[in-house]
Design brief:
23% of the residues are buried. The chain is of the alpha+beta class. The termini are far apart. Strands 1-2-3-5-4 form a five-stranded antiparallel sheet. It has six helices and five strands, in the order αααβββαββαα. The protein has one domain (12-162): 2-Layer Sandwich (HIT family, subunit A), CATH 3.30.428.10.
Length: 167
């Protein structure tokens, strides 16, 4: 018998929930990802000093992270080559997301240190979050839930395919 409630299915979040809101592994996820296949590591593009991957716990569909391969915590710890490539990859990520998903805007930034909100404070990463006029609703405020309309694997595939044509 229907109960009158709508259902929001987010099966990709079960690993996060079962881990109690923390990554299941104590290994640095940004050091591990490059050793995996692009699909398994959710990697969209590999550069020389940095790479681009999907955020495992995205704020929005297409939420990308730009990371140096080297395990450094602070932006001021990067080499000139690393910071230059991170900047170029961020620009490319914006072009690709714009071509693939047509967002109205972006949030771009780095949280430096746990107190500043970094979920993985020990390994530098820059967020590239596409935004749409209608992407905010009451879920995050009332239910601590974010509605993500696209599966990570599908979004990774679309962005990886769009990288060559739009980066």
């Amino acid at each position: 018998m229907p109960d009158g409630l709508a259902r929001l299915w987010t099966p990709h979040r079960i690993a996060y929930i079962e881990a109690g809101g923390v990554p299941a592994s104590h290994e640095c996820p940004f050091c591990v990802a490059p050793s995996l296949s692009d699909e398994d590591g959710l990697i969209v593009h590999r550069g020389e000093h940095a790479y681009v991957l999907m955020n495992l716990f995205p704020y929005n569909s297409g939420h990308l992270l730009v990371c140096p391969y080297r395990h450094v915590a602070g932006y001021d710890d990067t080499t000139p080559a690393e910071s230059a490539e991170m900047s170029a990859l961020t620009q490319s990520a914006m072009r690709v997301i714009r071509a693939v998903s047509r967002p109205a805007g972006f949030n771009i930034g780095m949280n430096q240190g746990a107190v500043a909100g970094a979920g993985v404070a020990a390994h530098l990463h820059q967020h590239v979050v596409p935004r749409w006029a209608s992407d905010a609703n009451f879920f995050p405020i009332i239910a601590q839930t974010k509605a993500i309309p696209k599966l990570l694997g599908d979004a990774r595939r679309e962005l990886a395919e769009g990288w060559a044509a739009n980066a």
